[in-house]
C-alpha cells in the first residue's frame, strides 16, 4: 500500500438506514479501483466489509468495518457501519474518528428512521455530511421526491443537489454535474453533453447550488449579485467551506449495484470532505487541555475505537492517529493504565484482512495487535509526552436478559467470557443484580443481545440459558413499630440465650440503613451489639415479605437481656435476625418498584398511540417537545411494564419509533400487584 500524507487522507463514516446499500457501495468501490477482482454480494456473505460469521449468517452488517480506497492520489478510509438501531454503538465509534459522514438514502424509500437517526448522530458529533441517493436503478426511483422527503424529515433547507440523474429506474444511465455542467454516462463515466430536454431543469438546479455556495463567502455573494459567473474553482472552494461548516449538505446520486456515478462520488469526497488537519479535537496533557489537529510532527496520540478478541490473532485494536506518527517496534504507553508496550505489529485493515505497515501517519486508521489491557477508548501515547484523547460516549442499554450457565463447565468460564464481550462492545453491559440473584446481560435491542449470546457459545465456548429478568423490587416500611424476641437453646452442653427489644423506623428515600443502640444499664453488653446488627443485615439482604432487599430503615435496640454463661455471638445474631423480622412485619412493610424515565421519539402521527400505550403501562407522561416532524414524549414508567418495550414500540410505529431509558427512582408498588409478587415468593419458598 502506498504512503500518504495527512492531507491526502479522508476518513468517512458510511451511514444510512438498513438496506440502503452501504456495504454494497464499499464493495463496488473496491472492485472499481482494482483492489478486488469480483464484486461480493451481501446476500451471499461474500463482501469484504461483512466478514463476521454472524453478519454472513444474517445478511446484515453488525460491526463497523474499515475499507481503505486509493483514488486520485488520495486515501479514502471508508468506515462502513451497521444500519440497524441495535448496533448504534458502531456508528458512534465510527463518527468519533471520522471527519465526515456519507449518508446513503434509498431512491424509493427516501428519508427513513435510520436516515433521521444518522443525521441526528452527525449533528451530535458536529460532523459535516454528504448525501448519496443510491439505487437509482430501482423501480419507482424518484430523485426529486427523495430530496423533498429529506428536507422535510431532516429540517434542513440547505440540502443542495450537486448532480441530477439522467433517467430513473430502468432508464437510469448517468449523472449531470452542476459544477462542470457536463453529463457522465455509464460505468466509465464517459463525458457527454447535457440532454436538451433537461437543460431547463439543470439551469434551475445550478442556480440553487450557486446561490448556496455564494452565501458562504462575502466576496462571492457580491460577485454573484453583480451578475458575474462563479468559476468552477470558486464554486468548489465555497462548497468545501460550506460542507465543512455544516451550512451545506451536497447531494449526489447513482447506483452502487450498477457502478454509475461512483467515480464522481469519490471525486466529491476528495474535494469536499475535510482532511484530518482541518478538524480540531480536544485532549488532555497533564492537567492542561490542548487541541490536536492531526499534526504529523506533534506528540503521538492514538485512540483505540474498536476492540476485537480473535481466537487466532488475539486482541486486535483499531486505532485512529490524532497526532504524531506511530512507528512499528517503538515503546508506547496506555495513558489510562500507564502500561508499557512494544509495538510489535502494525497494520492497515481492509475488512478482516490486515496489511502490515511500518508506520501510521497522523489522520490515518490502523490496527495494533496483542496489546493486553488496551480497551476501546484508551489512548496510546509516549511516556515523555503523555496525551489523553476523550473517548466516545455510548447510550444506555435498552434490552436485558438474565443469563444462566447451561452446565458447571460453562459456569466456570462465564465471567471471563462476559468480560471479553464487554471489551469488544462498549454498548453491552453486565450486572449482577443482588435483589434478584441474577446475572443480567444488557444491550441495545433483542438482536444485539441475541448475537452476544451466540458469540458466547461460538467464540468462547460458553452456552447459557436466557430468560426475562426479574424486576429488582425493594422492601421498606411505612410506620414505626416495635418487637421483642427471646432466643433460648439448650442441647445438653453449653446453651444459647439472647433477648432483644427493637424498634424500627422508616427513613427518607435513599438513606439506606441506620443502626442505633439506646440500651442503658448494661442489660445487653456492648460486645453483643455488633452481633445483633449482623443478624439484622442478614435479613435486610434476604427480605421479609417477598425476598427482596430492605432499604431506608432505622433499627433501634432499646432493651434486652443476656445470660452470664449462655449468651454468645451466635445467640444475639439469631435474636437480632428474628426481632428485626417481627418488627418489620408490624411496621406496614411495602414493596418498592423501579421507575424509569423513558424518552420516546416518534413521527407526529404516532404520538397519540404512544401516549395511550403509556396509560395502559401505568406510565405518567411528563411532557412533550417537537423536533422537526417528530415528537419526543417524556414519561415515567415502571420497569415491570417496559421490559420488552422495544418490540411493542416497533409494532406500534411501524419501526419508526425509537426510545431511550434510564433509572429515575423507586415508588411503592400498588397493593394489588404487591399481593401477587408476595404470593409468588411464598409459592417458590414452599416449592423449595
Describe the structure.
The chain has 688 residues and is of the alpha+beta class. The chain has five domains: 216 residues, Rossmann fold (3-Layer(aba) Sandwich); 109 residues, Elongation Factor Tu (Ef-tu), domain 3, CATH 2.40.30; 72 residues, Elongation Factor G (Translational Gtpase), domain 3 (Alpha-Beta Plaits, 2-Layer Sandwich), CATH 3.30.70.870; 114 residues, Ribosomal Protein S5, domain 2; 80 residues, Alpha-Beta Plaits (2-Layer Sandwich). 29% of the residues lie in helices and 32% in strands. It contains 16 helices and 37 strands. The strands form eight sheets. An eight-stranded antiparallel beta sheet has the order 18-17-23-14-15-22-19-20. Strands 2-3-1-4-5-11-6 form a seven-stranded mixed beta sheet, with helices on both faces. A hairpin with a 4-residue loop joins strand 26 and strand 27. Helix 6 packs across helix 7 and helix 6 crosses helix 8. The longest helix has 18 residues. The model has no long low-confidence stretch (mean pLDDT 92).
Features:
Elongation Factor Tu (Ef-tu), domain 3, Rossmann fold, 5 domains, Alpha-Beta Plaits, seven-stranded mixed beta sheet, single chain, 688 residues, 32% strand, eight-stranded antiparallel beta sheet, alpha+beta
Amino acid at each position: 500500500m502506498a504512503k500518504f500524507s495527512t492531507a491526502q487522507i479522508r476518513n468517512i463514516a458510511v451511514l444510512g438506514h438498513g438496506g440502503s446499500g452501504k456495504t454494497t457501495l464499499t464493495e463496488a468501490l473496491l472492485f472499481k479501483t482494482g483492489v478486488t477482482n469480483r464484486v461480493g454480494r451481501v446476500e451471499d456473505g461474500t463482501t469484504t466489509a461483512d466478514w463476521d460469521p454472524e453478519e454472513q449468517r444474517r445478511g446484515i452488517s453488525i460491526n463497523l468495518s474499515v475499507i481503505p480506497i486509493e483514488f486520485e492520489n488520495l486515501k479514502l478510509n471508508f468506515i462502513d457501519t451497521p444500519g440497524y438501531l441495535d448496533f448504534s454503538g458502531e456508528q458512534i465509534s465510527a463518527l468519533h474518528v471520522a471527519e465526515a459522514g456519507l449518508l446513503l438514502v434509498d431512491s424509493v424509500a427516501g428519508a427513513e428512521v435510520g436516515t433521521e437517526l444518522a443525521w441526528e448522530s452527525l449533528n451530535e458529533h458536529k460532523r459535516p455530511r454528504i448525501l448519496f441517493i443510491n439505487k437509482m436503478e430501482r423501480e419507482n426511483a424518484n430523485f426529486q421526491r427523495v430530496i423533498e422527503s429529506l428536507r422535510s424529515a431532516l429540517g434542513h433547507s440547505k440540502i443542495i443537489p450537486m448532480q441530477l440523474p439522467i433517467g430513473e429506474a430502468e432508464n437510469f444511465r448517468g449523472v449531470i454535474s452542476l459544477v462542470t455542467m457536463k453529463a457522465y454516462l455509464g460505468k466509465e463515466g464517459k463525458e457527454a453533453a447535457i440532454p436538451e430536454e433537461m437543460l431547463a431543469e439543470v439551469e434551475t438546479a445550478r442556480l440553487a447550488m450557486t446561490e448556496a455556495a455564494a452565501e458562504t463567502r462575502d466576496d462571492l455573494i457580491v460577485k454573484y449579485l453583480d451578475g458575474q459567473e462563479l468559476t468552477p474553482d470558486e464554486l468548489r472552494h465555497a462548497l468545501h467551506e460550506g460542507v465543512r461548516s455544516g451550512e451545506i449538505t451536497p447531494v449526489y446520486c447513482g447506483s452502487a449495484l450498477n457502478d454509475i456515478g461512483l467515480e464522481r462520488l469519490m471525486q466529491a469526497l476528495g474535494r469536499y470532505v475535510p482532511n484530518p488537519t482541518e478538524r480540531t479535537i480536544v485532549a488532555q496533557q497533564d492537567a492542561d487541555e490542548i487541541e490536536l489537529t492531526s499534526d504529523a510532527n506533534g506528540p503521538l496520540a492514538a485512540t483505540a475505537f474498536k476492540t476485537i478478541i480473535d481466537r487466532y490473532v488475539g486482541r486486535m485494536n483499531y486505532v485512529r492517529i490524532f497526532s504524531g506518527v506511530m512507528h512499528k517496534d517503538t515503546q508506547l504507553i496506555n495513558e489510562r493504565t500507564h502500561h508499557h508496550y512494544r509495538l510489535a505489529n502494525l497494520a492497515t485493515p481492509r475488512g478482516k484482512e490486515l496489511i502490515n505497515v511500518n508506520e501510521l501517519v497522523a489522520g490515518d486508521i490502523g490496527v495494533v495487535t496483542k496489546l493486553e489491557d488496551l480497551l476501546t477508548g484508551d489512548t496510546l501515547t509516549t511516556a515523555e509526552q503523555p496525551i489523553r484523547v476523550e473517548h466516545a460516549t455510548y447510550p444506555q442499554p435498552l434490552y436485558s436478559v438474565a443469563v444462566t450457565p447451561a452446565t458447571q463447565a460453562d459456569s466456570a468460564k462465564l465471567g471471563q467470557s462476559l468480560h471479553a464481550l464487554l471489551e469488544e462492545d462498549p454498548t453491552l453491559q453486565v450486572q449482577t443484580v443482588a435483589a434478584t440473584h441474577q446475572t443480567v446481560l444488557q444491550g441495545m435491542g433483542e438482536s444485539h443481545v441475541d448475537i452476544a449470546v451466540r458469540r458466547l457459545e461460538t467464540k468462547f465456548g460458553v452456552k447459557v440459558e436466557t430468560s426475562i429478568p426479574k424486576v429488582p423490587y425493594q422492601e421498606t416500611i411505612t410506620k414505626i413499630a416495635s418487637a421483642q424476641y427471646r432466643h433460648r437453646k439448650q442441647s445438653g452442653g453449653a446453651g444459647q440465650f439472647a433477648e432483644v427489644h427493637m424498634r424500627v423506623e422508616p427513613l427518607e428515600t435513599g438513606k439506606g440503613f441506620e443502626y442505633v443502640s439506646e440500651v442503658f444499664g448494661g442489660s445487653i453488653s456492648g460486645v453483643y451489639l455488633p452481633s445483633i446488627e449482623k443478624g439484622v443485615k442478614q435479613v435486610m439482604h434476604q427480605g421479609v415479605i417477598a425476598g427482596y432487599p430492605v432499604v431506608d430503615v432505622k433499627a433501634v435496640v432499646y432493651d434486652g437481656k443476656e445470660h452470664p454463661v449462655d449468651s454468645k455471638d451466635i445467640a444475639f445474631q439469631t435474636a437480632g435476625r428474628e426481632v428485626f423480622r417481627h418488627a418489620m412485619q408490624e411496621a406496614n412493610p411495602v414493596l418498592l418498584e423501579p421507575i424509569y424515565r423513558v424518552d420516546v421519539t416518534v413521527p407526529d402521527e404516532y404520538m397519540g398511540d404512544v401516549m395511550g400505550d403509556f396509560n395502559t403501562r401505568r406510565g405518567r407522561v411528563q411532557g412533550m417537545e417537537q423536533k422537526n416532524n417528530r415528537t419526543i414524549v417524556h414519561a415515567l414508567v415502571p420497569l415491570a411494564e417496559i421490559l420488552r418495550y422495544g418490540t411493542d414500540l416497533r409494532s406500534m410505529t411501524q419501526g419508526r419509533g425509537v426510545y431511550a431509558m434510564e433509572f429515575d427512582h423507586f415508588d411503592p408498588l400498588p397493593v394489588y400487584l404487591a399481593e401477587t409478587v408476595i404470593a409468588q415468593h411464598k409459592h417458590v419458598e414452599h416449592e423449595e
